[in-house]
Amino acid sequence: MTITDSRPRTATTPDIRVVRRRLGPGRRIPYAFWIGPLLLLAVWSAGSATGLISPAILTAPWDVVVAFGEQWTDHDLLGNILSSLNRAALGLGFGIAVGGVLAVVSGLSRIGESLIDGPIQIKRSVPTLALIPLFIAWFGIGQEMKIVTIALISLVPIYVHTHNGLRSIDGKYAELAETIDIGRAEFVRHIVLPGALPGFLLGMRFAVTSSLLGLVVVEQYNATAGIGHMITLAEQYGQTDVIVVGLVIYGVFGYCADSAVRLVGRRVLAWRRTLED
Q: What residue intervals traverse the membrane (predicted)?
C-alpha cells in the first residue's frame, strides 16, 4: 500500500513515502516470502550433495521426492493429507470461534473479564498436551479427543491477542464517541472491533502454528489415517525418508497457512500505516 500526503510539498515537509522507506525496512520485494524457504532448500541440497549432511541424519531432498511419489501412488498419501487437514481445520475452527467470543465478552465487560480471564490464564500455565490422558478418559481415543485438543490449543492465542487488542484501543476514541453521541452498539461495531482486528490476526498466526503442533501429537494416538499415522508407521519400519516427507508436509501446511493469514491481514488492514507497507 502506498501512502500519499495531501499536504502541500514544502522544503520542510518531506515525502512520507521516502522517509518511511529510508528509515523502515525498505521497498517491498516481490515474492520475497519464497526467498527464505528456497535458501533453506538450497543449503539442504548442497549439504546432502557434498556429504556434510549424512543420509542417516537427514534424508537428501531428492530421496524425499522419491518417497513422496511412492507414498502418493502406493500408500494413499492424499487421503492422509486430507484426513490431517480435516482434523486441523475442525479444531482450529472451534478454537477460533470460542476464543474470539470469550475475548469479546471479557474485553468489553468487567464482569465478563472477572469470570473468564482468570480461568484462561490458568489454562495458559497448563500445557494442553499434558491434558491428553484426561481427554482420552473423557472423550475416548477417537476423533473427538483429537479435535478437542487442537481446539483448546488454538483457543488460547486467539483469546490472549484479541483481548489485548480490545483493551489497547485508545480511550480518546471513547471520549470522541461520547462527544458526538454514538451509541454503545455502534461504537463497538465501528471502533472497537476494527481496532481489535490486528490483535485477532496476530492471534490467528499463533493459533495456526499451534494447531499444527497439536495435530502432530494427537495423530500419534490410535490414528488410522493422517500424516502423523504415516510417520508412526515409518518410525516402526525405520523409513527415515517417509518421516521427512511427513515433516515437510507439516512445514508446508504451517507456512502456507501463516502466509495466507498475513496476506489477509495486509488486505483487511490496508487503512493502517505500518512499516510493512
A: 31-53, 88-112, 124-141, 147-166, 187-208, 242-264
